[in-house]
Amino acid sequence: MVELNSFELDYIVNEDIPLIDLTSLVLSLEGDGNISFIFREDGIVCGTEEVERVFNRFDIEVLYKKSSGEFGRKGDEILKGRGKATSIHKAWKVSLNLLEYMSGIATKTYEFVKKAKEVNPDITVSTTRKFMPFTKKLAMKAILTGGAVPHRMSLSDTILIFKEHIVFKDFKEIVNNLEKIKKKSGGKSVGIEVETKEEAYVCIEKGFDFVQLDKWHPDEIKEVVEFRDSINSKTLIAAAGGINIENVQTFAKTGVDIIVTTSLYWSKPLNIKAKIERI
């Protein structure tokens, strides 16, 4: 699973506490307490491992913790810790932000994947590179927790040829040199995004690893899938562009292998309550 390194975790904490907790200082807070996080709505929890590391940073003992991926009902406890009052207040909001943001994405991803698989059990839901800067690892862990996978982790791991590349390189030249491209890449997966059915058919016949159809009508996508199946090609078909939880089943019913979406990154944070008690 994706994991923040120490520098990244420190960055998140230091963003919220660049120097001191001024409120706790001027109130002269003393004593020990418990802090717990509780579901205000049903959902898939994500981020408890990161919160545990925040707790460790402030010497807060973890008393109870659900693991990322566990389902919880409204009122269920997610995580509980014990420590000094000043430490609890430093960890409070950072921890709540992580849990709400990551659990929100994980929950919506779970619901999205479930809907897609109801009509196409073998489909894969994949997310784009259009996440907010500095949130990549958190978003990746959340979508993995919910049952999706990243479409491309970065520009370095997969070859995906867009029309913007074809501005500088002729389409026919690319298609006719597929084997050379694969060899030059060291055997990496090679995909291409096409704009017409004719282009899709040619790329399927040539043996691209996957062909991506962006903002296509479901009926046209279905035709491409049927063509692929008719020639027993192993090329995967990916549908992208404007796919969300409201229309995912329409696209999944076309028989595509992969649904590519950005919508999961903009999920509503899960509603989680923080409870602090003096002991």
Compact summary:
The protein has 279 residues and is α/β, with parallel strands linked by helices.
Q: How much of the sequence is in beta strands?
A: 15-25%
Number of domains: 2
CATH architecture title of the largest domain = Alpha-Beta Barrel
What is the total tally of β strands? Answer: 13
Shape, principal axes of CA atoms: elongated
List keywords for this structure.
22% strand; alpha/beta; 279 residues; single chain; Aldehyde Oxidoreductase, domain 3; TIM Barrel; 11 helices; 4-stranded antiparallel sheet
What does this protein look like?
This protein is of the alpha/beta class. The chain folds into two domains: 117 residues, Aldehyde Oxidoreductase, domain 3, CATH 3.90.1170; 147 residues, TIM Barrel (Alpha-Beta Barrel). It is 42% helix and 22% strand. It is built from eleven helices and 13 strands. The strands form three sheets. Strands 7-6-12-11-10-9-8 form a seven-stranded parallel β-sheet. Helix 4 crosses helix 5.
